[in-house]
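Q: My labmate handed me this sequence with no annotations at all. I'd like to see what the chain might look like in three dimensions before we decide whether it's worth expressing. Could you predict it?
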Amino acid sequence: IEAITHLRFKLRMFGIPLEEEPAHVICDNESVVKNSTLIESTLNKKHNSIAYHYVRWNVAAEAVKISWIQSEENLADPLTKHLSH
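A: Here is what I predict for the chain of 85 residues:
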């Protein structure tokens, strides 16, 4: 999320017009989507709370929109797994 907000800021500084709609982040982890988008969800671990605070703020500010996708449809999923030799 931090990289997205910095990239959008830099593009605006270069004079490149951006659409006012939020950046779409697609994730196949359902708990991440729920914790970052639902206000009533509670975070029990402090390191998670610090990370999600920034994400929640950006979701509330409509800078990003987090959506869930099935693992089978996630094109980037094979790139996140360990490849065997």
